[in-house]
Design a protein that fits this description.
With about 250 residues, this protein is mainly α. The protein contains nine helices and two strands. The chain has a two-stranded antiparallel ribbon with strand order 1-2.
């Protein structure tokens, strides 16, 4: 490693740690209407905290996944709308940055490591959720049919779901460490200065109401569709990994 690349790596690490610990923060310009980068940051941070709470609940069901299968499926379903909304809000912000929109350029991009980690968090989260829904809709018998056998290793839809969970657990864990303090400071610990209220509160509230309604409807549908897993109660070799994670 050259001195130049070593210095770049040190700067990247220092920037990530500074933002993760709250020592440094990015300024989010406040714009009329939806709030601009500041409104986007609020929507993303609140959605991330919802994802975190639901993900913790989902992980807790693994302690008795046989007995808590309906809760496991319901919480997995509840995770889908906020995961989709957070993906959309972060994609909008990054697209605005790279397209050269001035307020987003002024706000700046996340540290390099978080930018590299972001796509892995998104892909693993959406893959985990999608394969979880697939397991429910297929039913246990169809989900356990072999998809491919390679070098004596048989993979089915449960295996694919578990693979996404393994990747998600590592990526989301690192993402949480890097984003939890900034998210808390943007939301529950936020102290706006006088005259610095972020416009677009009603619009953000409407997005949240829509998200909650969609999550509730999806949970009802999927819980009623998981009868084969619930009635069969899982075979001894089964392991049903959780349907998300949170991103903050």
């Amino acid at each position: 490693m050259t001195d130049e690349s070593g210095s770049a790596l040190q700067r990247a690490v220092a920037e990530t740690l500074a933002e993760a610990s709250g020592r440094e923060t990015r300024d989010n310009p406040v714009l009329p209407g939806g709030g601009g980068p500041a409104g986007n940051a609020l929507l993303t941070a609140w959605t991330a905290l919802v994802l975190l709470a639901l993900s913790i609940g989902e992980l807790l069901t693994l302690f008795d996944v046989r007995g808590l299968i309906s809760w496991h499926v319901a919480l997995g379903a509840l995770l889908i709308p906020p995961a989709t909304m957070k993906t959309a809000s972060t994609t909008w912000r990054m697209a605005s940055y790279y397209l050269g929109r001035v307020p987003y350029r002024e706000a700046g991009a996340p540290p390099l490591f978080m930018r590299l980690l972001g796509p892995l968090v998104v892909v693993s989260t959406l893959g985990l959720l999608a394969t979880g829904v697939t397991l429910v809709l297929l039913g246990e018998e169809a989900a356990r049919r072999s998809l491919v056998t390679l070098l004596g290793f048989r993979a089915d839809w449960v295996t694919v779901h578990q693979g996404f969970f393994a990747v998600w657990a590592g990526a989301a864990g690192l993402h949480l460490l890097g984003r939890i303090i900034p998210a808390l400071r943007t939301t529950v610990l936020r102290r706006p200065a006088a005259g610095q209220a972020v416009p677009g509160r009603w619009a953000r509230g409407l997005w949240f109401v829509t998200m909650v309604a969609a999550a509730a409807a999806l949970a009802v549908v999927l819980v009623h569709a998981d009868s084969s897993w619930a009635s069969d109660g899982f075979r001894d070799h089964a392991h049903f990994a959780p349907d998300d994670g949170g991103n903050g």
